[in-house]
Amino acid sequence: xxxxxxxxxxxxxxxxxxxxxxxxxxxxxxxxxxxxxxxxxxxxxxxxxxxxxxxxxxxxxxxxxxxxxxxxxxxxxxxxxxxxxxxxxxxxxxxxxxxxxxxxxxxxxxxxxxxxxxx
Length: 119
Description:
Blueprint lengths: L1 H9 L6 H4 L4 H13 L6 H8 L18 H13 L9 E2 L2 E2 L9 H12 L1
Antiparallel strand pairs: 1-2
Helix pairs in contact: 3-4
C-alpha cells in the first residue's frame, strides 16, 4: 500500500483532469495498473482486471455496471457518510475527526500539526 501510494503521489499530476480529460476511463485504468505493477509484489494484470469497466451490459441488463471495485467503494462511501465524512481528506486522530485539516495544507502545516499532536 505505502509503496504504491508513494509512486501515485510522485506521479499524481499525470492523473489530474487537465492531463487525462481526453483519455477514455479504461485508458486511465491501464496507466494506473501499469504504475501499480511497477511496485514489487503487485500484479499489473490483476489490478487491471479489477479496474476495467466492461462495454457489455450486466447480467440483469444494467448499463451502469462499474468495475470489480465499485461495490466496495460504494460501501465505504456509505459508511463514511454515516459518520459525517463527505469529502477528502477527512483526517481522524484517535478516532476523532480533525476538521481543521485541509487538502490545501502545506508540508510545513502538516509538520507543525504532527509535531504538536504526534509527540
